[in-house]
Amino acid sequence: MATREIYETTFDEDVQTDAESNQCPECDGRVTTNAIETVCEDCGLVIDEQRIDHGPEWRTFDEDERERTGAPLTAARHDRGLSTEIGRGTDGNGNALSGQKRRRLSRLRREQTRGRFQSKAERNLAHGLGEVRRIVSALDLSETIRDQACRLFRSAQNEDLLQGRSIEAMAAASVYGACRCNGRPRTLDDITDSSRVEQSRVTNAYTTLNTELGLPAQPVTPSTFVPRLASELDVSDQIRQRARQLAEASESTGATTGVRPSGFAAACLYKAGREQGRWLTQSDVAEVANVSPVTVRTHRDTLDELAV
């Protein structure tokens, strides 16, 4: 009766032959690889072990069972989002808790809050990141800006830039720095209105961040403010495109050097509206740009002289 090797015509999904190096370095025997290790079938030499399992950690037996991987790491929390938060009032199914369980959870919550911060620096970091999240939410910015601002605040604390400065000012400066690095049209007035400190303190904090950390912030141009102001004024696409052309043409001539970008963008929209038959008032345009009507008129005269 003829004999044959095991698994010659069948397949075992747990045992595979190494195609690249199918010979043992000791005895030139056959090498097989399973889910745990790579061994030689002849001499038993273990060539490789503890291979990384890239599959899921959980097993699902029904549709209602939840995964046990937890929430992803986030830079918006001082502990990267690894700490546990104890809920209030209801259990996992939404049912009300008894008075005894609520008192027990209250004691657990108090002890968990006490042990959440290991040092005063960690407590300050948590407060600063919370302020960053509040400002980002008030300005309706993206999560990318939020995470970058949180990393910037964390870097400022690691470089001891918080000494002599308020946490709120450094948090607002981090948000403004993240917006500048990503080319987002946000003025310092917008950041200050959502923060709890004066504009001079935010300016001082941002100057420190830009100098000490070397932020890759690009100069803000009037053309970047045109889409935002156009959306607030609810103008047509033709006016938006014409205003952007006016702003870009003025930037190429150097007429926008040393001027406030939002004010010049407002003047471009005002001039484009007059050309398209949309009579925008100088007061309305100046209000959305947070400048005075005199600034709009001055930049309008500059555009008329350029004849772009």
From TrEMBL:
Q: Which of UniProt's keywords are assigned here?
A: Initiation factor, Metal-binding, Protein biosynthesis, Repeat, Transcription, Transcription regulation, Zinc, Zinc-finger
Any idea where the Cyclin-like domain is? Answer: 130-211, 224-308
The residues listed in the UniProt record as binding Zn(2+), with positions renumbered to this chain, are 24, 27, 40, 43
Q: Does the keyword Metal-binding apply?
A: yes
One Gene Ontology cellular component term attached to this UniProt record is: transcription preinitiation complex
* SUPFAM superfamilies for the chain: Cyclin-like, Zinc beta-ribbon
Q: Does the keyword Transcription regulation apply?
A: yes
A GO biological process of this protein is: transcription preinitiation complex assembly
Quote one Gene Ontology molecular function term: translation initiation factor activity
Chain residue ranges for the region called Disordered = 83-118
Residue windows of the sequence repeats? 130-213, 224-305
Q: Where is the composition biased (Basic and acidic residues)?
A: 108-118
Which InterPro entries does the record match to this protein? Cyclin-like_dom, Cyclin-like_sf, TFIIB, TFIIB_arc, TFIIB_cyclin, Znf_TFIIB
Top-level taxon of origin: Archaea
Task: State its role.
Answer: Stabilizes TBP binding to an archaeal box-A promoter. Also responsible for recruiting RNA polymerase II to the pre-initiation complex (DNA-TBP-TFIIB).
Tell me the protein family, please: Belongs to the TFIIB family.
Record's protein name: Transcription initiation factor IIB
